[in-house]
Amino acid sequence: MSRYRNFGLFLVLSALWGTAFVAISAGLEHLPPVLFAALRYDVAGLLMLGYAAYAVGGADGADGETWYPRGRDEWATAAVGAALLIAAYHAFLFVGQQHTTAAAASIVVSLSPVLTTGFARLLMPSDALSPAGMAGVCIGLVGVAVIAQPDPSNLFATDAVAKLLVFLAAASFALGSVLTRRIDASLPIETMEAWSMLGGALLLHGVSLALGEPFEPATWTDPQALGALAYLAVGASAIGFLLYFDLLERLGAVEINMVSYVAPIFAAVVGWLYLDEVVDAMTLFGFGLIVVGFLLVKRRAIREEFGHVQRWVSGD
């Protein structure tokens, strides 16, 4: 029964995160991109902070954990999360997605697990990538190039730059994931997420001001803008991250990483139904290359996971 539960939650999470790209595209029709991202995490951060206070159990929870960071390492973890996982990732993503489809953006972001492994190996030389792993990273990058389809005579075309920005978003998230693990602070994940979201929202507001984005609250009352903001803050962020960390504990990193490869399916279908977006053959081919790259990089962990599944099926 627990396997059915996990599978069901996995599909829910994939749907939440896949359709989030469609909500971003819808909201960008009414809100400037960086301000839109900042407003999303104003709401999500407050929700997560409330949940962190509840989950940890007040000012001083079990094992001395708290709902706020303490000490240099814990604040460093929250700062890296705010700067890379929230601010840089969403600034690049929201600006880039102005000029590309939800499906294409979700597929480029699905390269994140491959980049995460690459950054981990790069920052820890004693754990270098094998030749097959290096080939996997290269194949994944080729997949992104296929999706971007850059024109050598016009490398700064709007759509090529947009997809490059989405790639930088994926790279920011991957680097942030590695750095937060490297710091290895004993910070409860709920606390880390809450303070990263709030700090990231503050940084995004600063970037929005620096870019001179128009501050027009009257446009925020559009039903589509409000719906997109509510969905992203509550559904994709607050509920999505809770499901993610629940499944991470139950399934492990390999299985949960596969969310990145199921989410684009939901993004493509909903984007086609709601926004009339079309996924071309080259985008699908690029996605296939990214999946091949992931399989090469994670081949040992996937082999071990298949072994666990086979033992579970056989009842051992």
Q: Provide the structure class.
A: mainly alpha
Major sheet? none
What proportion strand? under 5%
Quantity of strands, as a count: 0
**How far apart lie the N and C ends?**
17 Å
Low-confidence stretches: none
Helix content class? over 70%
Number of helices: 13
Overall outline = globular
How would you describe the oligomerization state of the chains in this entry? single chain
Tell me the number of structural domains. Answer: 1
Radius of gyration: 19 Å
Mean pLDDT: 81
SSE sequence, one letter per element: HHHHHHHHHHHHH
Domain EamA: 9-147, 164-297
Keywords: Membrane, Transmembrane, Transmembrane helix
Membrane topology: Multi-pass membrane protein
Transmembrane segments: 35-54, 75-96, 102-122, 129-148, 160-180, 192-212, 224-244, 256-275, 281-297
List the SSEs and their pairings.
Elements: H1 2-27, H2 33-56, H3 71-96, H4 102-109, H5 112-123, H6 131-148, H7 158-183, H8 189-211, H9 223-251, H10 253-257, H11 259-275, H12 281-297, H13 299-314
Question: Care to give the gist of this entry?
Answer:
The protein is an all-alpha fold. Helices cover 78% and strands 0% of the residues.
Describe the 3D structure:
The structure is a single chain. The chain has 316 residues and is mainly α. It has one domain. 78% of the residues lie in helices and 0% in strands. It has helices spanning 2-27, 33-56, 71-96, 102-109, 112-123, 131-148, 158-183, 189-211, 223-251, 253-257, 259-275, 281-297, 299-314. Helix 2 packs antiparallel against helix 8 (189-211) and helix 4 (102-109) runs parallel beside helix 7 (158-183). The chain is globular and about 55 Å long. It starts with a helix and ends with a helix. The mean pLDDT is 81.
